[in-house]
Amino acid sequence: MSLVSTQSIDDLLIEVAALIIEALNLEVSPQDINPDDPLYGDGLGLDSIDMLEISLVISKHYGFQLRSDNEHNDQIYASLRTLTAHIASQRTK
User: Which stretches make up the Carrier domain (predicted)?
Assistant: First the structure.
């Protein structure tokens, strides 16, 4: 298993933010999203429909399933940073 460099995580944060913005037609730039702010509720203010849309876009783009019955979803979707870390962990397997 390869380690993901800090630079590639930073790049991936911007890439995932851009995917979310495009999928949800948000009027912010990827750099405007604080990676540690909550995605759901406060923070970006997304709702459950938005989270479903994000799951579909991430699954399609990165080629792995984000399942609604995953017991770790609260942690995975806690913030842009945790979602990106999950994506990185799936990509290095």
Answer: 7-91
- Under DSSP, is residue 57 helix (H, G, I), strand (E, B) or coil? helix
Task: Give the model confidence (pLDDT) of 40-78 as tens digits.
Answer: 888 888 998 999 999 999 999 999 988 888 899 999 999
Structure tokens at 87: 């994506």
Q: Of the candidates 30, 22, 20, which has an alpha carbon nearest to the alpha carbon of residue 83?
A: 20
Domain boundaries, the chain: 6-91
Dihedral sign for Cα 17, 18, 20, 21, please: positive
Tokens linked to 4:
């993901």
